[in-house]
Amino acid sequence: MNVFARPAPEGAGDAIVVRGLTKLFGGRPAVDHVSFRVARGRFFGFLGPNGAGKSTTIKMLTGLLRPTEGEVFIEGHPLERELLAVKRLIGILPEELPLYERLTGEEYLHFAGRMYGLSREETRRRTDELLAFLSLEEERGKLIVDYSQGMRKKTALAAALIHSPRVLFLDEPLNGIDPVSGRVVTDLLRRLAQKGVTMFFTSHVLDVAERLCDEVAIIDRGRLVAQGTLAQIRAQREVAQDASLEDVFLKLVAADVKRQDLSWIG
Length: 266
Fold this sequence. Notes:
Elements: E1 14-25, E2 28-39, E3 43-47, H1 54-61, E4 69-74, E5 77-78, H2 83-89, E6 90-93, H3 105-115, H4 120-133, H5 149-161, E7 167-171, H6 179-194, E8 198-202, H7 206-212, E9 215-220, E10 223-228, H8 230-237, H9 245-253
Parallel strand pairs: 3-8, 3-9, 6-7, 7-8
Antiparallel strand pairs: 1-2, 1-4, 4-5, 9-10
């Protein structure tokens, strides 16, 4: 079922507000005066080609990287002035997984739960449920250094969920996860969004983004080139009403790409 055009919940308010967000590296903009809003409970896709500024933006939205200019508000809290309050409200699944490899998966989740202020009893209960839900029970006692990429990704997701965040930042959350686990994860994320958790989601797999997201923003070379539901972007960019998200994306970010055939293929 395509929920891409699901309307915002009545009176939802904004979970994320970004105004003029800019990051310069060596005087050159990696993110250039980006502004957008994400309503509470929305599944928001932040899409772009490699090097467009997606991961840099997520790092700024989560307090991992200081912007050169601009403002970020998470659930009404100004990120720069109330970083600790924001950290309690968000969960982060980064593309690069900074896990403590000399802990077991169970120990790592216990550490995450306690770090977020959960009691020992509640941390144990949630750890048990998350390990079972993500099919990690048999690996709970193994060191993370011995985990596969998919197991690491699921462990990092469990740590991002353990404290019941109100906003989830998901950078390529399905990379390295097998199709069965991928379906379990996407079904869980949908249910969380329906319960009011806001999802900020990046992916290169555009058909997955089309299935999951209520709204998308497309960034290219550090600047937003489109934002809205798929229907809104189709209308704005005068593309066919049956055009897929991939069709629209390629029209916006690959229009000037020169294609060259291989000589032996023609």
